[in-house]
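Escalation from tier 1.

The customer reports that the assembly of two entities below gives different structure tokens on two consecutive runs. Tier 1 could not reproduce it. I'm attaching the input and our single run for tier 2 to review.
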Amino acid sequence: MKKVLSKCFMLLLSVKKFLSLIFLVFFLLPAAQAALRVEITKGADGAIPIAVVPFELLGNAGNTLNVSDIVTVDLQRSGKFSPIEKNKLIATPKDLEEVNYKLWRIAGVDHLVIGKLNVIKPNQYEVSFRLIDVFKGVQVLGFQFAANDNSLRGISHHISDLIYEKITGQKGAFDTKIAYVTTERKQGVQPSYKLQVADTDGYNSQTVLNSTQPVMSPSWSPDGSKLAYVSFEKRKAEIYIQNLYSQQREKVSAFKGINGAPVWSPDGKKLALTLSKKGNADIYVLTLATKKLQQITRHWGIDTEPSWTPDGSEIVFTSSRTGKPQIYRVALRGGSPKRVTFEGRYNASPEISSDGRTLIFVQGEGNIFKIASMDLQTGFVQTLTDGPLDESPSFSPNGSMIIYASTDKFKGVLAAVSTDGRFKQKLVLSEGDVREPTWGPFRK
Amino acid sequence: MKLTKIVSALMLAGLLSACAPDNVKDADTAADNDQQSQSTDGAQTGGIDGAGTEGGMALSGATVSYEKSAINDANNVLAEKVIYFDFDSDQISADYQELIAHHGKYLAANSDMSVRLEGHADERGSREYNVALAHRRAQSVRRLVLFQGVNAEQVSIISYGEEKPVALGHDDESWRLNRRVELVYEAR
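Tier 1 run:
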């Protein structure tokens, strides 16, 4: 596991019209660490002002992770907060007694975070933080954690989660993982396809599979311990399930033709997938314990990209049954599929939010492909991104953000947009093209 | 139109060669072909004309032979091993039907050879949909190959969707080159 030992943190702030903020956050890392750039491309109006005071360092801190910087960037990336720049803080209290509430009230700061990182000995830390409601003049949250080099980054994200939940009332999703695929292509060299898992800010990346043949369509088990994916390593499409802790894997589907688009059912017992074993791409459901296969769709057109409704009773999918790809839904118990999307010529890659209310998908018009959402009660469709080649949308487990694959000067990058479309960011990793992000579940 | 002539010549050649290998070659076609191979250098397209999806296609040789070794002959009609498609389409344009028929006849004549049809899509649209689309493209080619009396076991299919582009640009020309089915021969 790579650790970030040192970093340079630089904030360039420019205040634009309508109070939207554009932050460029650069992390300059040691050579061994993949460079990463988080670029907030569209700030949200009405973000909550918060001050995260740099945590007090006790003991010989050396190059220890900067917890308060991680928390600041997390809150910033959520789009719901506008943390005050470090060099614009009016005071840097270390303890509750040092907080001058009146001063912070005048500065218009609603919430204040203070904390300490105590280095007991190398690789043994104690982290504590307090969240203070400036207007009430009280501490509303306070925790202390034991940490080591391996856990400190995760604990920093956990602190962000606690702060986020206390203030917004919604569970935070910073201490979760994303899976994605990277590709490196160089002239004259075999391409390299990697399935990776990383923190939601792109750090702590771990390679799950490294192959010279394509790897596709990662899907998280609901408990976050396994990934299902498609690998072409044997020069044919096969679906594997790999345990992320033991790294052991099992081949679960290797029929003739397509074995694609695996997606775990909400209860973790089944896998929806696309097979062409009867000649044509149809949706099937595989019960993992018994290996029983149930065919869900039967049509001469393309049926693929299944996604489960939260109760596991229905599957939404992409179908070309009317000529161009559109999104349909069908009950597992049977019945004919019902068309869901009608606007636009190309609608594909659907996913339903965990509350069942919102459908997100890729919408194409000419050469421009954007992420769009549909309110499933009203049918109202909203375009969330600008394209031109956006794909693979995936909800954060709390439903507040959507991560997707985008391009930055034609390089494949990860991007995120708030579910209401008001806040956007890009996550640019140095290692090749990045695609097919999928957000893991809450940590159990 | 010149291209139509070439295609007619090939069709004729195909008919003539049903009994015995026939060498049909005319100067115009050869000259045409030289230009083609220059314009597609480095793109690994096997010399198919840039206007392929709009209905024009030139083949890199008028020699028609179904001898077993012909598959490795750069001047044989079988040297063309890539079929191109329109966006979101698995339809084989009329110009490619003859080329696929040549491949079918070759496989029918050489039952110890097999071909893997590798389907591909351009980067636009969603990835798994593109796998299914590219699979259908390969199936379209397979259907026409089998039409020539080829044993079904000689033809296999794999779809890579958009995962293995040959052209790495993000423009119409790159997309055109990536929407393809490649015929990969193997001795059985």
